[in-house]
Amino acid sequence: MDKINVGIVGLGRSGWDIHSKLLEKLSDRYRVAAVCDADPLRRNEAERQFKCRSYETLPEFLKDSEVELAIIATPSHLHAANTIEALKAGRNVVCEKPMAGKLSDADLMIKTAKKTGKVLTVFHNRRYFPDFLKVREVINSGKLGRIVEIKMTWNGFGRRWDWQTLRKFGGGTLNNTCPHAIDQALHLFGDKEPEIYCHMEKTVALGDAEDHVKIIFRAKGAPMVDLEVSSACAYAGDSWLIMGTQGGLRGEFTKLQWKYFDPAKLPRRTVSEFPVADRSYNADNIPWQEESWDIDQDRSPGQAGFYVDLYETLKNNAPLAITPESARRVMWVIERCHKIAGI
Question: CA 282, CA 270: separation in Å to the nearest integer?
Fold first, then answer.
């Protein structure tokens, strides 16, 4: 296959542990030609691993004409500026989440991509996670009936004290963990513009940014989505809890179960104004059907699917799977939450 020459900007947790590992698995499609990082030890490690060139600064990196695709995996507050610089230098760009620090910067990124004619996408890799794909499949099957409410909880208990706990670096749970969950929530919510409720606070993190976030999405004709991402939950429950008029779903990232019934198999009922004969509550004997899913049985490519789809876009002109406009919608929610919470 005709390989795409890639440059990774930022060799931290995301650039090194996620992007470079995914590209290694897809070595038939991608080649890491260059990297950029201020840390010489990280640059040396990448040179040994990929037999690539390395650069200390972004301007130096962008002079490397062999790089076709730049992956911007720098700290959050640098995403917009680094992406715009790379686009203007004639590179296609994968930008890590969050797309930008504010909505106006996201708009400028989209405008720059259109002006330069280069591809801009955002690494919302959770769209490819097996549990989300299965949840969406079950909802779309109609088995659960009309979806009334979707509860998503990404909870745990743990302190952090790295740069992502500091506001000056664009830190906080809303900016750095929630974009994944918000992206999934919006896809399940639908195309309507949601009314947003948001509560945020700092609980156990050592920095000054929030680490407990609750967001509720509402709109007429759409399911209510209740999203919670917290570092102060000692008893984390199900990651997924979905309520429908014909059944429901519950489970974790690795295991799901759902039950549903055929409305045609319920006895016909009519509302009665008279007391129940035995003074009890009404009760149906519901003929439930139950199914389950386990990640060990899953054969989807997982987040590697992001780069499989991107290859098809760059080499075969396939439609872009994750458009910057869809990532902008996530930024709209984040900015709205900041305004509501006054942060």
Answer: 12
Domains of the chain, start order? 4-123+303-320 (3.40.50.720), 127-302 (3.30.360.10)
CA dist., res. 152 & res. 238, Å (int): 8
- Tokens 């997924």 correspond to 240
- Output the pLDDT for position 5: 98
Q: What span, in angstroms and rounded, lies between the C-alpha atoms of 282 and 276?
A: 8
Contact 110, 325 (CB under 8 A): yes
CA 218 to chain centre: 19
168-to-78, 140, 207, 262 alpha-carbon distances in Å: 11, 41, 10, 53
Strand spans (E) along the chain: 4-9, 30-36, 53-55, 69-72, 92-95, 120-122, 147-155, 195-201, 212-218, 224-230, 240-244, 247-251, 255-260, 289-294
Please tell me the predicted confidence (pLDDT) of residue 328. Answer: 98
Q: Which helix (H) or strand (E) holds 88?
A: helix 79-88
Coil vs helix vs strand at 58 = helix
Residue type, 250: R
Question: Mean pLDDT per 10-residue run, the chain (343 residues)?
Answer: 96 97 97 98 98 98 98 96 98 97 97 98 97 98 98 97 94 96 97 96 97 98 98 96 98 97 94 90 94 93 96 98 98 96 85
Q: Does pTM top 0.70 for this prediction?
A: yes
